[in-house]
């Protein structure tokens, strides 16, 4: 080809690439570099299957599907984003613990087969954005508390953020499932189909600082839910010992008082930050008997395993609200485990024999011994921990007991009588007495 024609061909090729939609440009770039496509379809989530080994690195339809199933099991993966990361690994480990499997946080046939108990509904669903979804949004959330205090609300900043919390998704993952779709009233989009809120009465909450998990139990010692969390920091660790829930504030104001708590920037006087999901304590505050400490939501759910706190326990807003509906003032205890102790040890569970087979198991053979019978506080717990980074200057401690807009009656109204654990129901009677997990074949 003559040189002038070659140059013209290159110019036209570049012009064509620029004219492509952004998603197409991304796909083209990734195919050239060998990276996996950034777009995952709802159909891929529905059809994703497991053929052995750990979850693939990066983002995948399989990981997103596993996250949805974990969410439905009451073992929260935090945000559903399709990425294999620390929160998903910790959720698999927590699921293994409640299922009586050795805890390594690695996907295997045992975990996959047990998760199928929660696959009776589609993984995704259609949702049509309503006019209400576009209401009460704010342009942005400033970091300075004095600027926050001037606002009328710490509300959602976009429709994507609002829907992300409703469907337990990272807002960027909404864009992944709906490439090129403008999020506006009338648009129908694909979203994940997570669990509805768990119900029951939580009498015991265990906070595990090492694996950054918070497990909640009913009066019979049955685990109801298990969440990922940010739990203190090296500079301001969470409290130790046992405390109890004092009250619950839904959609609370935040009282900033540098004379009693911490000092942010040049702010040297008390401020009242208005309520909202993007407030310093999110949309829920569960007050503890330890002064100025609590369990609360967060404005950055995807950062739970990276941010630090000033001693309090951060959950996603949706997990915090679910938990708030099940605790009871003066009844629910909150235990902060000492260093080196795991939730399995705190609940008196026995270690399970190691299982390393990668062969698929049938449903009967893969069913676990109940959590009340067996679990494994193995050294693999360390695999779920990461070095905390990106310190967050926004502290969680409220000004003593001053909590505005407290609605304990509303929180109590959400609580319902304890219901059966879905995992226990699904697996009841699945194992014969004395069942032992089959040993690894030498040839595998």
TrEMBL record:
Compositional bias annotation for Low complexity: 372-381
Pathway: Cell wall biogenesis; peptidoglycan biosynthesis
Gene3D superfamilies the record matches: L,D-transpeptidase catalytic domain-like, PGBD-like superfamily/PGBD
PROSITE patterns for the chain: LD_TPASE (PS52029)
Annotated L,D-TPase catalytic domain residues: 203-336
Catalytic residue positions: 296, 312
Keyword Isomerase in annotation: no
Disordered as annotated region, ranges: 351-381, 406-444
Endpoints of the signal sequence: 1-24
Source species, domain of life: Bacteria
CDD domains recorded: YkuD_like
InterPro entries for this protein: LD-transpeptidase, LD_TPept_cat_dom, Peptidoglycan-bd-like, PGBD-like_sf, PGBDSf, Transpep_catalytic_dom
Keywords: Cell shape, Cell wall biogenesis/degradation, Peptidoglycan synthesis, Signal, Transferase
Family (UniProt): Belongs to the YkuD family.
UniProt-listed PANTHER family: BLR4375 PROTEIN (PTHR30582:SF30), L,D-TRANSPEPTIDASE (PTHR30582)
Protein name, entry field: L,D-transpeptidase
Native source organism of the sequence: Paracoccus maritimus
Source organism phylogeny: Bacteria, Pseudomonadati, Pseudomonadota, Alphaproteobacteria, Rhodobacterales
